[in-house]
Request: fold
Amino acid sequence: MKNILIIDDDIAVRTSLSLLLKRASYQVSDASNPKDAISSVRRNTFNLIIMDMNYSRATTGEEGLTLLKDIKSYAPQTPVILMTAWASIQLAVEGMKLGASDFISKPWNNDQLLRNVKTALQLVDNDQKDLQGVSRSNLDKKYDFEKIIGESPQMLRILSTIGRVSQTDASVMILGESGTGKELIAEAIHMNSQRSNQSFIKVNLGGIPSTLFESEMFGYKRGAFTDAKSDRMGRFEMAHNGTIFLDEIGDLPLNNQVKLLRVLQEGSFEKLGSTITQSVDVRLISATNHNIKALVESGQFREDLFYRINLITIQLPPLRDRTDDIPLMVNHFIGNLKTLYKRSHLTISSSAMQWLKQLPWSGNIRELKNLIERVVVISPNDTITIADFQAHIHTMPKKTDATSLPPIGSMTLEDIEKSMILKALEFHGNNISKVANTLGLSRAALYRRLEKYNLTNETSS
Ligand SMILES: Nc1ncnc2c1ncn2[C@@H]1O[C@H](COP(=O)(O)OP(=O)(O)OP(=O)(O)O)[C@@H](O)[C@H]1O
Ligand SMILES: [Mg+2]
Reply:
């Protein structure tokens, strides 16, 4: 049985927390002040410590921080969960920096607290597991990683981590450049978890206008605002009992970060226009290709939210740092295309394989996958060679970058728009439908611009 120490000067807190934990089959001890707590920690071994940050009259939290340091010196391996009021959550952040493993705000939500306790205990168990000698085939016996190709040492370490953490409710943050497989890894964590037959809800936080954040995430009641014609479920409610994947979390504006922190911290939310508080049980996975630590340092990302979402961090390496996985991936992609296009003799020359290994791959695995697909579609040969790739790379549309644009001050946006329209008119022999199509406009929108720039005489139809 797991042995938990509760440290709080408030007897009401100690009593109700003890009761809750005992009912959940934990063995519980308690202490009402730092001195008793330390002597208890020196005499016993606990699996987990839950401690308040404020003792006696002082409310600065200094005592809590000192106590945490002392606990960490006597029992460095024991996970510690901090309790603070919502208003002093910054204290919890200080504590996380000193090695606390999680934090809970008072008043707590019982279910949420039990989840945090269970997760903290599981993560220690996991830590102690031996990492030596993991192989891809061992991992595949235990977990379903079918879609994830790779057996480089970096990839094996990542797969064994996600295998282990998928069994817990710990929040996971996935970092990595664009195209490195963040979404694929997020899905794998869900698929291998106990939540796998519940929903996996993906939210692209970069794509939600800031003002719609709450209605998107929490939903609304009919009449909550003018356009709310009927009740609507938010993403958190959809993800209830399952996993919520918050993609591009680095793009979330500050005013919405605090709203997100609140629901994660309290395990509950209210729909817009409703006073009823709904409990929600979700496993959180987030991802970003920003340097999130730098965003925290520059004040663009809340530190408390950072610690909340990031019990486990997974850093995906860029493809150029694990080139040994490139042949595996290429063969895998070609294998899929063989079936798709019924070209059973499709293969790649060994020199082409070598050649692919030395490309920079700034778009990572997505870029590799796209390149293989396009070359297979275009090339009639059964064996793909370097020449096939090169021919294709040269015909790939160049991305407009800042340097290929005219110098600042030489043209306005309208000038550029007008020139582009003229160029397209010339290219398509003044065919309006084709011009509209290549410029990504409707015919009506193109006509409006033609009138605006006095170009209506140029066109036939
Ligand atoms: N290890 C892998 N094995 C096979 N395919 C992979 C692997 N990693 C990524 N892919 C494929 O590469 C593509 C890009 O992956 P994914 O969308 O997960 O990247 P991402 O990191 O989320 O990118 P972005 O930051 O642009 O959103 C997908 O088609 C995915 O299936
Ligand atoms: Mg993605």
Q: What stands out?
A: The domain at 3-128 is CATH 3.40.50.2300 (Rossmann fold).
